């Protein structure tokens, strides 16, 4: 028997060299795509966070290289996350300096490592599938709505924003309306050509060796140069804007060090704990979502991911970068580009650092509208119509939490929306479990009803309400047999309800017989449970 390690078997490891060349053909182009997607997002999130632009790029570099090497996930990509921008912005203001905030990131990273070591990542096993599917579709819809303004040349909101309420005092819908009134036709043409390339280029199998996103960037850059000096010319803010360094001295000056003098500051520890919790939750959600869309259906080790993310945040904080999480947008782009292993994420990290050092001026000629086209196609794949049809055919108990999660995430933000979806999902789980804890039969013995309740193999706390309701609704003057002969485990709360009912039933003329029900049950051993690697 082969043991799974993050979706890769021991046999796979033995023939790693055999697959390396085949995988690299997919991973290197995918890493390039992720690099193109990550570049404006890193900058936009840093800008919105009130942090130096280089700190966003640095978080992307560390997320790609450090987290990529330590992670057990083959397709997840880490970097600065939009969900942390408000926390970062407020924390820098409260603490008085960016250096003081860096200490929070270092401590948060250490906390995440501890969370991974104590196996807190197992919480990911309890995210309902319908909620994760809803989150993916919602991110797709958000990408389409948020990237539309950038595609038509309206770049007031920062790249990477996922929240409904924007920092520019608008919201997702009003941003789209304003974009329609301030269209830059040069940006529209570039976006339209870029979308056509993204859609039709992959259909030419022989030409598709050149990644469509790379062709999009080349075409967009050429068109922007052609439009310069005409009525279709783009504004400076409609291009990628990377800090340009002229020498090694300027480059090393971009790095910042944490202010360890604030180690005794209570606010530092509160901020660190907040970052650790929020970043860990976003990471686990993203990890589950990426596993859903992995074509090979591998299972990522969640506890190892927390350790990897913690190490990444610790390194990022020490060097002067932003906090990071596993990010679903970059990860989805990675999957969509055909990545097979973590080499794609690592390669994107190296591309970030090489290109920022070597060709920043060239990168600053890339229009945001062509990058928006790439993200629009990613969004469409995540929110495809077939997904809605698939969830509908699964039944209302899956479709309703799915739709509620979509609406909640789009109208609030990722964590709040998923939280609302989780509540609805748990309601349907409880509703389903209320029907499953026993088999119920009614017979007659003379003038009395004979009721037999045969308990299921596993009777958990979730079954408590159903059994309580059933017992209290049994008719008076009847004989009741509660049979536990099939049960390997009955929750203590359920046992208490059964025993209390037996003692009090005589007041209703009910005679209760307990059959093969023990006084206590031990929790089933782990070997009897379904194994999921952590």
Describe this structure in words.
It is built from 21 helices and 10 strands. The longest helix has 33 residues, at 16-48. Mean pLDDT is 87; it is low at 1-15 and 529-534. By secondary structure, it is α/β, with parallel strands linked by helices. It has 2 domains: 20-407, no CATH class; 438-527, STAS domain (Transcription Regulator spoIIAA, 2-Layer Sandwich), CATH 3.30.750. β5 and β6 (448-455) form a beta hairpin. It has a 4-stranded mixed beta sheet, with helices on one face. The chain has a two-stranded antiparallel sheet with strand order 1-2. Strands 3-4 form a two-stranded antiparallel sheet. The two termini are 18 Å apart. α2 packs across α14 (343-358) and α5 (98-117) crosses α11 (266-293).
């Amino acid at each position: 028997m082969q043991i799974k390690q993050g979706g890769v078997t021991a046999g796979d490891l033995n023939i790693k060299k055999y697959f390396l060349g085949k995988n690299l053909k997919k991973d290197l182009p995918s890493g390039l795509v992720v690099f193109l997607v990550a570049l404006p997002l890193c900058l936009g999130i840093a800008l919105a966070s009130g942090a130096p632009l280089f700190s966003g790029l640095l978080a992307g570099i560390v997320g790609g290289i450090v987290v990529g090497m330590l992670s057990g996930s083959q397709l997840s990509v880490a970097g600065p996350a939009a969900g942390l921008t408000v926390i970062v912005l407020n924390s820098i203001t409260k603490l008085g300096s960016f250096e003081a905030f860096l200490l929070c990131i270092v401590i948060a990273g250490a906390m995440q490592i501890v969370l991974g070591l104590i196996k807190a990542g197992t919480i990911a096993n309890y995210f309902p599938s319908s909620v994760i599917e809803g989150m993916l579709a919602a991110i797709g819809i958000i990408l389409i709505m948020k990237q539309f303004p950038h595609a038509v040349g309206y770049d007031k909101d920062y790249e990477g924003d996922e929240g409904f309420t924007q920092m520019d005092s608008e919201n997702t819908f009003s941003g789209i309306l304003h974009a329609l009134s301030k269209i830059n036709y040069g940006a529209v043409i570039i976006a339209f050509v870029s979308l056509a390339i993204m859609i039709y280029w992959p259909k030419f199998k022989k030409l598709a060796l050149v990644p469509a996103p790379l062709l999009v960037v080349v075409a967009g850059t050429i068109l922007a140069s052609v439009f310069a000096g005409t009525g279709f010319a783009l504004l400076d803010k409609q291009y990628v804007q990377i800090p340009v360094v002229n020498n090694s001295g300027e480059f090393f000056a971009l790095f910042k060090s944490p202010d360890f003098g604030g180690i005794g500051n209570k606010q530092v520890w509160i901020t660190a704990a907040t970052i650790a919790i929020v970043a860990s939750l976003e990471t686990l959600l993203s990890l589950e979502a990426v596993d859903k869309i992995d074509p090979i259906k591998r299972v990522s080790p969640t506890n190892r991911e927390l350790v990897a993310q913690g190490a990444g945040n610790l390194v990022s904080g020490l060097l002067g970068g932003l906090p990071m999480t596993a990010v679903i947008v970059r990860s989805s782009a990675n999957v969509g580009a055909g990545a097979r292993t973590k080499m794609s994420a690592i390669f994107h990290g190296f591309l970030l650092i090489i290109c920022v050092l070597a060709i920043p001026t060239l990168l600053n000629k890339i229009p945001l509208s062509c990058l928006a086209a790439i993200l629009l196609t990613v969004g469409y794949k995540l929110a495809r119509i077939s997904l809605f049809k698939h969830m509908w055919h699964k039944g209302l108990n899956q479709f309703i939490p799915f739709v509620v999660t979509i609406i909640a995430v789009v109208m609030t933000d990722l964590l709040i929306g998923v939280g609302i979806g989780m509540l609805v999902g748990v309601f349907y789980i409880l509703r389903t479990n209320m029907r499953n804890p026993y088999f119920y039969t009614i017979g007659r013995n003379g003038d009395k009803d004979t009721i037999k309740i045969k308990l299921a193999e596993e009777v958990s706390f979730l079954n408590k309400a159903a059994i309580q309701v059933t017992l209290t609704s049994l008719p008076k003057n009847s004989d009741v047999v509660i049979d536990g002969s099939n049960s390997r485990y009955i929750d203590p709360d359920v046992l208490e309800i059964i025993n209390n009912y037996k003692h009090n039933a005589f007041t209703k003329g009910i005679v209760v017989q307990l059959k093969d029900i023990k006084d206590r049950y031990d929790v089933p051993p782990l070997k009897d449970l379904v194994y999921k690697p952590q």
